[in-house]
Amino acid sequence: MSIPRDALQAAADAHGTPLYVYDAAELDAALARVRDAFGDARVYYAMKANPNLTLLRRLHAAGVGFECVSAGELARAEHIGAAGANILVNGPAKSEAEYAAGARLGATFIVDRAEEVSLLPPASRALVRVNPALAVSTHDHLATGAAGSKFGVTLEQAPRVLDALRAAGHDALGLHVHIGSAIRDAGDFTAAFGRLTDLRERTGPLTVLDAGGGWGLDADLHGIAREARHAAQAFGAELWVEPGRYLVARAGQLLTRVVGTKHTGRNFVLVDAGMTELLRPMLYGAVHPVAPLWSAPDQQAWDIAGPACESGDVLARDVPLPTPERGHLLAFAEAGAYGAAMSSTYLTRSRPAEVLCEGDQWTLVRRRETPQDVWAAEE
Ligand SMILES: *Cc1c(COP(=O)(O)O)cnc(C)c1O
């Protein structure tokens, strides 16, 4: 944790909890690691990981483009001034509004099924998403490149869809592959890229190979980059990548305050954040590192549970902690990706505030919602 404990404590006191804290230095460092590994590949940030406008503006200023999967995300991209070659429109079931917004912004479309060829705006730039039919090393809900997944066209169909795009007057730039999220084994990427390069004889040379994202935080980035570059070279194509989680996960932590403890055969520490603020443990069985911001001599294992009336609302199990007391703070690390982005107003909970730390400068980058914000659209 690079932000000092007393600064985190002060932020929680000033802004309340649950609180998302982002570290600008860590965001910059993650982007630097991506650029170091992938060289001059064009980087599109998968906005769904964390759409906070301040983070988007910082990435935009650093020359990063955006992969958008909804009309709302396209509106965010437009709002911060991104356009044209800096925007990808993706998704398995795009709406008319999404095609229209993409066309207006001059974005590049990722075609997910053959039928889309006739739905694209005239003379669109397009990539074809290929499903490499692979089993990958991640949670089932995070795998997108398996046979039978809803994403992409088959390896068999892909060359024909490229031809159909050209015949319909579109600019068929090349192929796209994204096999899932939080993938630790670089071999999964090697296998996926290998299946794509097997298509080379049928596709001929291409302008772009988009290698997607999905890199686990501890994945061998240089190894993945080497394989992606080989695949792009096989097509004579330039390489694009779409990291989401990798860019923002480590930059974010979730601060939550201890409400109390309870012993039911297990030791529970109850905190003021839960599934409504951090859904990943419940949705994917995700394990986030947890740091207590207090010290005490003795330690035992605690389950950390949230306030929701749902028995699945447990953020972590068997975490060794010094004896907790009401008011103590816990920091859930690696929470910058799919944390705030997946927070919900279930139970009329107000979504948390978000602050950005840059050196000793703290900026509120999203205010805490009020109950009135939550019901505003019902009045
Ligand atoms: C979600 C997604 C990404 C980013 O995935 P991460 O695991 O966050 O890196 C990239 N490309 C596509 C098509 C996606 O759906």
Automatic annotation (TrEMBL):
<comment type="pathway">
    <text>Amino-acid biosynthesis; L-lysine biosynthesis via DAP pathway; L-lysine from DL-2,6-diaminopimelate: step 1/1.</text>
</comment>
<dbReference type="InterPro" id="IPR022644">
    <property type="entry name" value="De-COase2_N"/>
</dbReference>
<dbReference type="Pfam" id="PF00278">
    <property type="entry name" value="Orn_DAP_Arg_deC"/>
</dbReference>
<feature type="binding site">
    <location>
        <position position="214"/>
    </location>
    <ligand>
        <name>pyridoxal 5'-phosphate</name>
    </ligand>
</feature>
<feature type="domain" description="Orn/DAP/Arg decarboxylase 2 C-terminal">
    <location>
        <begin position="20"/>
        <end position="336"/>
    </location>
</feature>
<feature type="binding site">
    <location>
        <position position="338"/>
    </location>
    <ligand>
        <name>pyridoxal 5'-phosphate</name>
    </ligand>
</feature>
<comment type="subunit">
    <text>Homodimer.</text>
</comment>
<keyword id="KW-0457">Lysine biosynthesis</keyword>
<feature type="binding site">
    <location>
        <position position="245"/>
    </location>
    <ligand>
        <name>substrate</name>
    </ligand>
</feature>
<feature type="binding site">
    <location>
        <begin position="242"/>
        <end position="245"/>
    </location>
    <ligand>
        <name>pyridoxal 5'-phosphate</name>
    </ligand>
</feature>
<keyword id="KW-0028">Amino-acid biosynthesis</keyword>
<keyword id="KW-0663">Pyridoxal phosphate</keyword>
<feature type="binding site">
    <location>
        <position position="284"/>
    </location>
    <ligand>
        <name>substrate</name>
    </ligand>
</feature>
<dbReference type="InterPro" id="IPR000183">
    <property type="entry name" value="Orn/DAP/Arg_de-COase"/>
</dbReference>
<comment type="similarity">
    <text>Belongs to the Orn/Lys/Arg decarboxylase class-II family. LysA subfamily.</text>
</comment>
<dbReference type="InterPro" id="IPR022643">
    <property type="entry name" value="De-COase2_C"/>
</dbReference>
<feature type="binding site">
    <location>
        <position position="338"/>
    </location>
    <ligand>
        <name>substrate</name>
    </ligand>
</feature>
<feature type="binding site">
    <location>
        <position position="280"/>
    </location>
    <ligand>
        <name>substrate</name>
    </ligand>
</feature>
<dbReference type="InterPro" id="IPR009006">
    <property type="entry name" value="Ala_racemase/Decarboxylase_C"/>
</dbReference>
<dbReference type="GO" id="GO:0008836">
    <property type="term" value="F:diaminopimelate decarboxylase activity"/>
</dbReference>
<dbReference type="InterPro" id="IPR002986">
    <property type="entry name" value="DAP_deCOOHase_LysA"/>
</dbReference>
<dbReference type="InterPro" id="IPR022653">
    <property type="entry name" value="De-COase2_pyr-phos_BS"/>
</dbReference>
<protein>
    <recommendedName>
        <fullName>Diaminopimelate decarboxylase</fullName>
        <ecNumber>4.1.1.20</ecNumber>
    </recommendedName>
</protein>
<keyword id="KW-0210">Decarboxylase</keyword>
<comment type="function">
    <text>Specifically catalyzes the decarboxylation of meso-diaminopimelate (meso-DAP) to L-lysine.</text>
</comment>
<dbReference type="Pfam" id="PF02784">
    <property type="entry name" value="Orn_Arg_deC_N"/>
</dbReference>
<feature type="binding site">
    <location>
        <position position="310"/>
    </location>
    <ligand>
        <name>substrate</name>
    </ligand>
</feature>
<keyword id="KW-0456">Lyase</keyword>
<feature type="modified residue" description="N6-(pyridoxal phosphate)lysine">
    <location>
        <position position="48"/>
    </location>
</feature>
<dbReference type="InterPro" id="IPR029066">
    <property type="entry name" value="PLP-binding_barrel"/>
</dbReference>
<feature type="domain" description="Orn/DAP/Arg decarboxylase 2 N-terminal">
    <location>
        <begin position="26"/>
        <end position="249"/>
    </location>
</feature>
